[in-house]
Amino acid sequence: MTSTPKRPPYDPEVAAALAMVSANGALQPVTLGTLKEMRARGETSNEDLGRFDLDRVDIMIPGYEGAELTASVFSRRGRTGAGPGVLHLHGGGMIARNRFTGVSVVLPWAVEHDAVVVTVDYRLAPEHPDPYPVEDCYAALVWLAGHAEEYGIDPDRLLVAGTSAGGGLAAGTALLARDRGGPRLLGQMLCCPMLDDRDRTVSTAQFEGIGVWDRESNRTGWTALLGARRGTSDVSPYAAPARARDLSGLPPAFLDVGSAEVFRDEVVAYASRIWADGGVAELHVWPGGTHGWEGLAPLGRMARQAAASRAGWIARLLET
Fold first, then answer.
1. How many domains is the chain built from?
2. Domain residues for 95?
């Protein structure tokens, strides 16, 4: 008889939100068989982007091997001069969602720091497996750096940011920029990032069949991206940044994660390895947070604290 693993408890506000979502039947694990349904649910963003009162321009930019990618550029109305440039990469387990998913995390930077935010529809697995997603993201960064003057961006203040799969892709893009001598990044924001395909941590075992983006869903995402290579020695560190042997020479990183989610241990390990390799990282582990908990309880106390922590990090980074 298999015993139930011990798990850290959910934050009370998160637990209440999870119970409500679960009652609606929206917490089923994602499989390749249910991927079409998952994509259908996420076709329309439920984020209120209009509340930021920003200009938005939709454009096409070159991706990996010259493919055309759809991107949106957000900037403050009537801005002049040059401000920071932010490449935002959306979440969705490498298999779903679009460029507007999670972009509200970084749009305040356009309002408060005169940043230009570019968010891109990179190509998704399994139709476009590794290396397409991360190579599309790197191509978008190269495009952003090359068009900095055109969009009023300071080329010395480029950042990459993402949540979940987007956080993993942001980390992989930062590694590619370092190793290829590409655009120099000022910072990388990795929110609950998807970093490790090996499925070996304590937190993966703790959250199998429970919570948002559980162990089975995570295996589905990585299998879609890597196929039979998942968990083997034949996986690139750009696809799964936890595989990187050397994390030195990277831009300062902000990482956060919930204590009650699959990604907890790999995120903590990644921050620890950045420190071990002489780098700069700020790590927040939010007690009782499930994956994407802010979307479940956006008005809760912990969500407000998380937003303040990110705002403080970007303010300090841009003031240096």
1. 1
2. 12-319
